[in-house]
């Protein structure tokens, strides 16, 4: 009943699936949930600190014989470690009552007895990432070599991608030179054929004018949803702007080549302006096309006579065209100057600056036309052109950076290298040290879970934000050097278009093959992390006899430690609280602006269904896959036959460090973490699309690039999952969604400032998304004595006010805090470690005293 109710708690999510699988639908599930007075246990995130603190809470609840009373077990990150441990123990023992008997420290036998081996195993693997922590141990070296291997594989793919891009820049360059050397009807001998020039200009401007007009037409064309292809639908397509920019780039590319070819035929600026007069006619024609298709005549008030309307449009078009021709003539003049002026005389410079100059001429003509039309050109249309201008100038910047790096950087560096050859090793070492320190800061930024205050940057944040640019310079330089070395090996071949085309295609093919075989998940750090979590927390609940019969004696791992999450159902002999493992679906690109600060959605793994709720305004229509209007899938089939394992869900829920990590996402941090492969998250099939049964993308390059730039969304075929703390670090959100009447929350997140930030964040989101008001006074916990740093209480009680329900629910909030009444060993540990119990989440290497202190604190808090 409880699992069925969970599947229907939100009636907008799962009714379709339940009907599909032949299950009986519960009428008014929210009302039914409130009538059942459901109880939930939430265990917060915080890595092994949270897992160990919440272990103590579980032991105390077992002693009070309360574990069997809970309907739901909602866990996040470190809470998921110990929650999964409990669920697997219940599943293997047969019932929660049997586990309670062994978990209760007052009823259990001696600490070394086999019956409580799951507890003793946790102590053995408190340093779960590297159980033998010696620097020369096999565990430490395995950890280091695994990271190095995976990092080099991913960096190789990124380097090959860079070499592919640099090769094609050379293809464009030599193609441009080849075009410039072709004899056309527009420049025969020293005479420029005006008719051919006019025809060429028409071929360039008319397609661009048509695309621009279609974009403008959207303001006066209503969209019929039944018509797939219409002027309005094409104009609203995101591909229209891309097509227009590509066409403008091709046009600028061709014009620059022609200017370069004929720059020696006309010397004076006036002669160039006179030569380009045929472009006035083609420019006016282009302006007329834009005005007609874009329905400019609908912008002018109806009271204005048609003659005035024609005059407005005609004058603005003529002035804009003349302004564009003047700028084009200036670009032509500059290209001629660069061609013959020493020491700037080289084709590379002209190729680099020529295309941006032509694009600027187009932009100037658009701006001038808007200025002349003034108030008759509506602001909504100016916004369209402003967005287009922003995209064009972004492309210009990228063009200047890539072409300059490809064609100029190597020669510039060679001169610097010759001058600083003796200090080169020191410069390289300093560069590596700088980047390495920045990566360390990025890692700590991800594990702390603290969001920077707006407008308050410290020196470390500036350091992190500057580091990617410094790394990118070195990475570009490395790519250019390697490409030049490859070229020098085949020095018998001239640097021609064909050579670089073959080279670019060959390197691109190798890149595609490697990204297909390597994927985006296989060689991240996820498997390293997951395998050790499974051994430490799920291997703990197996009997000695079973594990000794199947585990690998060399590695110490055993696949049988893990179990399918779908096995944790009552009908499959699981008698215990229904587990909800919380993760965050990163969504830095959102269509609903009210959710843009979150940059994430709540994504759960449970025995019955896996998935996420989504805003009805969030469209996935841009994807090529079929879109389903629900975000949950049956766990038996999601991501793989048999569904995800409990270990996989636990590891994803604890993926604290990842390029995409909800509202902690930063472009600079994402870049550093991806380059150095500090990636614990997982790209998985989007449950809204047909690929929901796949655990990973077929080819990982596109998603590796998304990690690199810190971009993800809910509309891609695959979504990025990471630590549940990147959305809700308490595990409270999903319990409130299910209308739990009584909730116990164990909070051991890192909270050195005593602000209860995680609780406040969860309360805020429950109010916004569910209309549920939670009232709780945490001042007995947050108000600490300045001298002793002790607070007044470990536990406070709050009210949960559900809409339409006059009887409030109850929230019991248990915080990792010190009150001064702790046992002597806890006080001693606190004196030796003043950060306790708020030590950094980055510390995942607990020793015996640290483990016992957090366990005892949790046990002592209730």
From TrEMBL:
The keyword Transmembrane is assigned to this record: yes
One Gene Ontology biological process: glycerophospholipid catabolic process
InterPro entries reported in the protein's UniProt record: Acyl_Trfase/lysoPLipase, PNPLA_dom
Domain PNPLA: 41-159
GO molecular function per UniProt: phospholipase A2 activity
Membrane spanning residue stretches: 157-177, 197-219, 239-260, 275-297, 309-335, 350-372, 392-413, 425-445, 466-487, 499-520, 667-685
Pfam families: Patatin
Protein name: PNPLA domain-containing protein
Organism: Pedobacter ginsengisoli
Lineage, broadest ranks: Bacteria, Pseudomonadati, Bacteroidota, Sphingobacteriia, Sphingobacteriales
